C-alpha cells in the first residue's frame, strides 16, 4: 500500500516543494491550503489530492485528514507547515495581524497535530512542524519569532508524548529561504524551497527506529 504524505500550507513555497519531492519518492500527497487554484494545479502535477483547508478552523483540519483517510486509508506523514510572518516592531504590525499570526502559526499547527494524531499512531507515522531559526533565537521586535518559539516548544512537547506511541516527530527550522513568504528578495544567497524540502525528505526517509528530532538549515552566507 502506498504511503500518504499530508501537508498544510501546501500551495506555495516549502509546502509545494515538499509535495513535489514526496510525490517523486512514491508518496500519495494530500495538499491542504486556502488557495484552491494553486492547490488544484499542484494536485494535477503531483497526482495528489487537493483539499481546501484554513488551518485556523478545526472543522477544516478534521475534514483534511478525513479526506486523506477516505481516499487512501492512512496518513503516514503529517507536515504542519502553514504559517506567515510580518514586520518587526511592537508598534508596527496591528493587533489583528498578531492575532492572525498566532492563530495560523501556533493554533493551526496544534490543530494539525490533533487532527492527524490517531491516524499517525495507527501506522507509527511521522509528524513534522515548520519552525524557524527565529524559533531558536529571539529577533528584536519580531512577533513572528514569538510564534515560532511556541512551535519549537510544541514540537518537543509532541515528541515527548508521541514517541512512546511509535510516532516520530521532527522540527524543521529554516534560515533565510527565497520563497513567496518574503515581500523582498533576500540580500544574501538564500536557501531555495527545494533545499528545505530535501531536508524534510531526509528526515522522513530515515529507518523507522531513527528520528531526526530537529533540522536547523541555514544558508552558508547567513551569519545570524
Q: Please summarize the sheet with the most strands.
A: 7 strands, parallel
Rg, rounded, reads: 16 Å
CATH topology: Rossmann fold
Compressed to H and E, one letter per element, the order equals: EHEHEHEHEHEHE
CATH architecture: 3-Layer(aba) Sandwich
Mean of all residue-level pLDDT scores: 92
Give the CATH superfamily.
NAD(P)-binding Rossmann-like Domain
Strand order of the largest sheet: 3-2-1-4-5-6-7
Determine the number of helices (DSSP H or I, runs of at least 4 residues). 6
Q: State the end-to-end CA separation.
A: 44 Å
Strand content: 15-25%
Share of residues in helices:
40-55%
Q: Can you put this structure into words, describing what you see?
A:
There is one protein chain. The chain has helices at 13-24, 36-46, 58-72, 95-123, 143-162, 193-204; strands spanning 4-8, 28-33, 49-52, 77-80, 126-130, 168-174, 214-217. With 224 residues, it is of the alpha/beta class. Helix 2 links the parallel strand 2 (28-33) and strand 3 (49-52). The chain has a seven-stranded parallel β-sheet, sandwiched between helices. The protein has one domain (4-217): NAD(P)-binding Rossmann-like Domain (Rossmann fold). It is globular and about 50 Å long. The longest helix is centred in the middle third of the chain and has 29 residues, at 95-123. It starts with a strand and ends in a 7-residue tail after the last strand. Helix 1 (13-24) packs across helix 6, helix 3 (58-72) packs parallel to helix 4 and helix 4 (95-123) packs parallel to helix 5. The protein is 44% helix and 16% strand.
Amino acid at each position: 500500500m502506498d504511503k500518504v504524505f499530508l501537508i498544510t500550507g501546501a500551495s506555495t513555497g516549502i509546502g509545494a516543494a515538499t509535495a513535489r519531492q514526496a510525490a517523486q519518492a512514491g508518496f500519495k500527497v494530500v495538499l491542504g491550503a486556502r488557495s484552491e487554484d494553486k492547490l488544484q494545479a499542484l494536485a494535477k502535477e503531483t497526482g495528489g489530492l487537493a483539499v481546501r483547508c484554513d488551518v485556523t478552523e478545526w472543522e477544516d483540519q478534521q475534514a483534511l485528514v478525513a479526506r486523506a483517510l477516505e481516499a487512501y486509508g492512512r496518513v503516514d506523514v503529517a507536515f504542519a507547515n502553514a504559517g506567515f510572518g510580518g514586520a518587526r516592531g511592537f508598534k508596527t504590525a496591528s493587533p489583528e495581524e498578531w492575532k492572525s499570526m498566532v492563530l495560523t502559526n501556533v493554533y493551526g499547527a496544534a490543530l494539525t497535530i490533533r487532527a492527524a494524531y490517531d491516524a499517525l499512531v495507527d501506522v507509527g507515522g511521522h509528524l513534522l512542524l515548520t519552525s524557524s531559526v527565529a524559533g531558536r533565537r529571539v529577533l528584536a521586535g519580531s512577533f513572528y519569532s514569538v510564534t515560532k518559539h511556541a512551535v519549537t516548544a510544541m514540537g518537543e512537547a509532541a515528541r515527548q508524548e508521541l514517541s512512546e506511541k511509535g510516532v516520530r516527530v521532527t522540527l524543521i527550522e529554516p534560515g533565510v529561504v527565497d520563497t513567496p513568504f518574503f515581500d523582498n528578495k533576500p540580500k544574501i544567497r538564500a536557501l531555495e524551497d527545494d533545499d528545505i524540502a530535501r531536508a524534510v525528505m531526509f528526515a522522513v526517509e530515515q529507518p523507522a527506529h531513527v528520528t531526526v528530532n530537529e533540522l536547523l538549515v541555514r544558508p552558508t552566507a547567513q551569519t545570524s
